[in-house]
Amino acid sequence: MKIAVVGATGMVGTVMLKILAERNFPLTELLLVASERSTGKEILFKDTRLRIISIEDALAAKPAIAIFSAGGDTSLKWAPKFALAGTTVIDNSSVWRMDPSKKLIVPEINANILTKEDKIIANPNCSTIQMVMALAPLHKKYSMRRVIVSTYQSVSGTGAKAVQQMENEQNGIQGAMAYPHQIHRNVIPQCDVFEENGYTKEEMKLALEPQKILNDSSFSISATAVRIPTSGGHSESVNVEFVRDFTIDQVRTILDQTPGIILQDNPATNTYPMPMFAHGKDAVFVGRLRRDDTQKNTLNMWIVSDNLRKGAATNAVQIAEHLAKHGLT
Q1: Which of 31, 46, 191, 292 is 20 to 30 A from 8 (CA-CA)?
Q2: CATH for 2-124+312-325, among 3.50.50.60, 3.30.830.10, 2.30.29.30, 3.40.50.720?
Q3: Does residue 6 contact residue 313 with C-beta atoms inside 8 Å?
Q4: In the chain, what is the straight-line distance between the N-terminal and C-terminal CA atoms, in Å?
Q5: Of 159, 311, 132, 299, residue with least CA distance to 227
Q6: Edge to edge, what strands does the sheet with 298-305 contain?
Q7: In sequence order, what DSSP letters do the residues of 114-140 get, joined into one string?
């Protein structure tokens, strides 16, 4: 199987290559695509040095699957061209996610809806993926009515420029700014740009994407997305009101038995999810489970995941694995 990675030198693209190698994805040829200034350079994949090619050359090679992580503009222009050539595109940008003709996939939840006709498949937002991984099994059992989420998102979610800004500020170096404010020793209550309703684009992704993934608009989500000075891993405080009542032991059992979830929930030993535990791992970590005693049928929990892995690269590779396993390319 011939695979292309578009945006191979970016933060997510680099992790994608690592995950393809770790998981021994059944590829026969790997095509690496990056910006024009990187064309011709080489990247080590497993024990082989691969030359970066242009996106035009990758298109002409007609890969079975192309995983895009090169920004929305690139995806808008090139994903349809790859799809027209018969390639199945898995896109990590936000441009196709809410397109009603495109499917938004978290493999553990809804990969079963994919068909051979799906030539552009959207990878959800990083914060959405970890939240919906924990919410989906609980929604199935208790039926969500309303979710309130506050995120604590690392600078790696913005990209290399943001990581460099934080490192520069830590070392007292003047440099390019990815944010409108200092991030070192600070918290910025803004992820992405503001929309007319006062919410940011990131907050609206959290509000809308879970409904599409779960194919259910019976619940509502209100989000506040916050950038914090950590280099990797997103955290979320989630308050969810259900239609049906639950016990904490029931919730703990459901989450503990859900593939892709690791339960870390023991206050007696100060055991709870933190980015330092999630780093480099593909699981979603859940803890701080407790009832919200201020209203009926309501649960509080804390969710953490590596935003570059399950929040982006791993989820995309898992989609590709599903396509390969079921002959859907």
Answers
A1: 191
A2: 3.40.50.720
A3: no
A4: 10
A5: 159
A6: 220-227, 144-153, 234-242, 298-305, 284-291, 261-263
A7: --TT--EEEPPPHHHHHHHHHHHHHHH
CA distance 304 to 287: 9
Q: How many whole angstroms separate alpha carbon 130 and alpha carbon 238? A: 11
Task: Tell me, yes or no, if 234 is annotated catalytic.
Answer: yes
CATH class label, 127-307: alpha beta
Quick: pLDDT tens for 270-302: 999 999 999 999 999 999 999 999 999 999 999
Q: Where are the domains of the chain?
A: 2-124+312-325, 127-307
Tell me whether the CATH fold assigned to 2-124+312-325 matches the one assigned to 127-307: no
CA 127 vs CA 43, 134, 324: distances in Å: 29, 12, 26
Catalytic residue among 126, 184, 322, 326: 126
- Of 234, 279, 322, 326, the catalytic one is 234
Question: How many Cβ atoms from other residues are within 10 Å of residue 320's Cβ?
Answer: 28
Query: Is the sign of the CA dihedral 282, 321, 23, 161 positive or negative?
Result: negative
Q: What is the CA radius of gyration of the chain?
A: 20
pLDDT in tens, 81-139: 999 999 999 999 999 999 999 999 999 999 999 999 999 999 999 999 999 999 999 99
